[in-house]
Design a protein that fits this description.
Layout: E1 6-17, E2 20-31, E3 35-39, H1 46-54, E4 61-66, E5 70-71, H2 77-83, E6 85-88, H3 100-107, H4 115-120, H5 125-138, H6 153-165, E7 171-175, H7 183-196, E8 201-205, H8 209-215, E9 218-223, E10 226-231, H9 233-238, H10 240-254
Parallel strand pairs: 3-8, 3-9, 6-7, 7-8
Antiparallel strand pairs: 1-2, 1-4, 4-5, 9-10
Helix pairs in contact: 3-6, 5-6
Length: about 260
């Protein structure tokens, strides 16, 4: 049974870079098992939002509450990962010279895990089963013995998503997952993320509006570090301020 309520809650969060507010008194809530898409023009604060949640960036003020009552501000990135927050960056980060299976094997969440320990340890039957299930989920079952560096761009992205979910995150942060993908890969990525939302809360940063329409139930629009609109895709697309921001920037770009 899925938990109810918010899995991540940001209240009054401000990130100030010498007077430039990358986030400006931001309030942001995502519930358990929710697939949330965050959009906004360049410089809106989208990546900074993820940086704050995962502990990479320390805000000047505000609260970041994970789960029932865990304050994330002040915790190290590795501590936040152990609490159950995983992040998939825009550029895939995989071990190109290892096989797909070996990449996933190195990523399995284990009680005792150092790099040397992990490389020398033989996987248990349970761990092997989890890797096999993950290969099915990410669509790479037939590529298990394949060197990861030879995968297509989209397949590399799916592999890294598999590597992250093998860490058992309750919350998965995904930054522009379909950038550079083919139409077919983009569609498959949407199906993958929607399937993962059955077990994980997911926050996706994205620019591709066709992809947003494919996967989003609730969309959050950021502008100048704060939320200006939130709701179903149809509501967001019809919002006058959202249209002004996007269309206005397009006019400037074409001027």
């Amino acid at each position: 049974m899925s938990e109810r309520g918010s899995i991540i809650y940001l209240e009054g969060v401000t990130v100030d870079y010498d007077g430039f507010k990358a986030l400006n008194n931001l309030n942001f809530i995502v519930n358990y098992n929710e697939l949330r898409v965050v959009i906004g023009p360049n410089g809106a604060g989208k990546t900074t939002l993820l940086d704050v949640i995962c502990g990479k960036t320390k805000p000047a003020s505000g609260r970041v509450i994970f789960g029932k009552d865990t304050e994330l501000i002040g915790k190290r990135e590795d501590e936040i990962v152990k609490l159950g927050i995983g992040r998939k960056f825009q550029a895939p980060s995989i071990y190109a010279n290892l096989t797909v299976w070996e990449n996933l094997d190195l990523s399995v969440k284990r009680v005792s895990k150092g790099v040397l320990h992990t490389m020398l340890k033989t996987s248990t039957h349970e761990e092997q089963a989890r890797i096999g299930e993950t290969l099915e989920v990410i669509g790479l079952k037939d590529y298990a013995p394949t060197r990861a560096g030879s995968l297509s761009h989209g397949q590399k992205q799916w592999l890294e998503i598999g590597m992250v979910i093998l860490q058992d995150p309750s919350l998965l942060l995904v930054d522009e997952p379909v950038a550079g993908m083919t139409d077919r890969e983009t569609e498959q990525t949407g199906i993958l993320l929607q399937s993962l939302a059955a077990k994980h809360a997911i926050v996706v940063i994205e620019h591709d509006m066709e992809f947003v329409r494919q996967i989003a139930r609730i969309v959050t629009v950021l502008h100048e570090g704060t939320v200006i609109c939130e709701g179903p895709v149809e509501k967001v697309q019809a919002d006058a301020r959202v249209r002004e921001i996007y269309l206005g920037r397009q006019k400037v770009a074409h001027a």
